[in-house]
Amino acid sequence: DLTGQKMIMDKYTRIQGDYVAIVKNPSELIPPIFMINDLGSCLEWNEAMQKITGMKREDAIDKLLIGEVFTLHDYGCRVKDHATLTKLSILMNTVISGQDPGKLLFGFFDTDGKYVESLLTANKRTNVEGKITGALCFLHVASPELQHALQVQKMSEQAATNSFKELTYIRQELRNPLNGMQFTHSLLEPSELTEEQRRLVASNVLCQDQLKKILHDTDLESIEQ
C-alpha cells in the first residue's frame, strides 16, 4: 500500500526532524544529548554535552563511545575504572538489542579534570522499517546549586559522625574516673563529717548522678554539645 508507506515515511521524517531540532537546539533547557549507531560510534554530541564534558563535537563524532569518547586513558572523557566502562557497555548493548530503555548512574572527568556525576538514560533508535539503528542518550546532571547542597549535606553528615565518635570516646574515658569517685564516696559514708563536708559530698553525689545519666544515655545525638 503506497499510501500507508508514504504515511509511515512522513511520520518517520517528522520524527527525525524533531530529533535533529532537539539535538541542534542551543537552548540551555535542552539537556546533554548524544547518539550512537548500532556499532557504538558517536553520531551526535549536542552543545550541552560539549559544555558538560569540555569535549568538542568534532572530537566526539565518529569515535567509539566506549574506549575513545569515554575512556580510561588521558584522551576523551576519562572514567574512574574499568567497571564504569563495563556498565556503560552493558547498558548500550541492552538498549540496542531491543530491550526497554535503561538508566545508569554514570560518572566521568571532564577535560579539565572535574568529576561529573550524572544519571544516563538510553533509548533505542529505529529506522523507518522499525530496525534498531542505535541509541539516543540523555545525561541528567544536578544543577550547581543542588550539587553544592548535596556537598554541604555530606559534610554535615561527616561532621555529625565525627562528633558522635568523639562523644563515644569521651564517655568511655569518663567512666573510670566516675567509678573511682563513687568508690571514694562509699568510703566516706561511714565517716564522721562536718555539716559543710556533708553538703559538699551531697553536691558531689548529685553531680555524679547527672554525669552517670549522661554516660549511660544510649542516644548520644540528644546530648547538647
Roughly how many Å apart are the termini? 80 Å
Percent strand equals 15-25%
Radius of gyration: 32 Å
Q: How many domain regions?
A: 2
How is the CATH topology of the largest domain named?
A: Beta-Lactamase
Name the CATH class of the largest domain: Alpha Beta
User: What characterizes the major β-sheet?
Assistant: 5 strands, antiparallel
Strand order, main sheet: write it out: 2-1-7-6-5
Poorly predicted residue ranges: none
CATH superfamily of the largest domain: PAS domain
- Give the name of the CATH architecture of the largest domain: 2-Layer Sandwich
What fraction, in percent, of the residue positions are helical?
40-55%
Question: Helices and strands, in N-to-C order?
Answer: HEEHHEEHEEEHH
The tally of helices reads 6
Q: What structural class should be given to the helix and strand makeup?
A: alpha+beta
Shape: rod-shaped
The count of strands amounts to 7
**Mean pLDDT across residues:** 78
SSE layout:
Blueprint: H1 2-24, E1 33-37, E2 42-45, H2 47-53, H3 57-60, E3 70-71, E4 77-78, H4 82-96, E5 102-109, E6 115-126, E7 132-140, H5 144-188, H6 195-215
Parallel strand pairs: 3-4
Antiparallel strand pairs: 1-2, 1-7, 5-6, 6-7
Helix pairs in contact: 5-6
